[in-house]
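Holo prediction. Input below; ligand is magnesium ion.
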Amino acid sequence: MKISSAEFVMSNSDVTKCPKDKLPEYAFIGRSNVGKSSLINMLTSRKSLAKTSGRPGKTQLINHFIINKTWFLVDLPGYGYARVSKSSKKVFQKFITAYFSKRTQLVSAFVLVDCRHEPQKIDLEFMQWLGENQIPFSIIFTKADKLSKNKLPIQINSYIEEMLKYWEEMPNYFITSSSTGLGKDDVLAYIDDINSQLKNLE
Ligand code: GTP
Ligand code: MG
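Structure of the complex:
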């Protein structure tokens, strides 16, 4: 899919105030600092469409971007950010949960995990929650450039092995790097494919 336009629409913490348009929507979620905002910039080939930072906790709101004037891409705050106080963590959780349960336009979520790390409890629990709530999702392994060519498949395989302890099948997944552009075409083709199928249903 060629991205001919990518524009910021709005930020907010209230799902009822998100754009009313019934366009297909894809949301990027994962732990703080995993690379959600960087991935959005990589996918759209825009350097700073989504704000990124080396310090966790940069994205604090639900951010809508409209792509090719036909679908929404959503950048969400990270979960599991230790330096956020307990009370604001609760507020965060509340609006993220509300977003996923109430946003009927949401077609699929992408759960980002850093390919260097072992499966983290918080990610596994979040995927479990998505499953229980019948919210479709794919996994996106990020920062693939940080592992050697040999180490990368070993690490991915061990992640899959761990997932299969909880899931009958490994969810759909992508291996990406925002630094090298790895995985860009695959993720965009996947979204394009779903968008075409939805169009045919109209
Ligand atoms: P929050 O908004 O705080 O939840 O973080 P985020 O998940 O949006 O992460 P962000 O995109 O801001 O990236 C966090 C840090 O990781 C930044 O310093 C990025 O430059 C770096 N980073 C993100 N993706 C990659 C990648 O694919 N490779 C490398 N080497 N660094 C990356
Ligand atoms: Mg971010």
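The helical segments are 36-44, 86-102, 121-132, 151-163, 184-201. That is the main takeaway for now.
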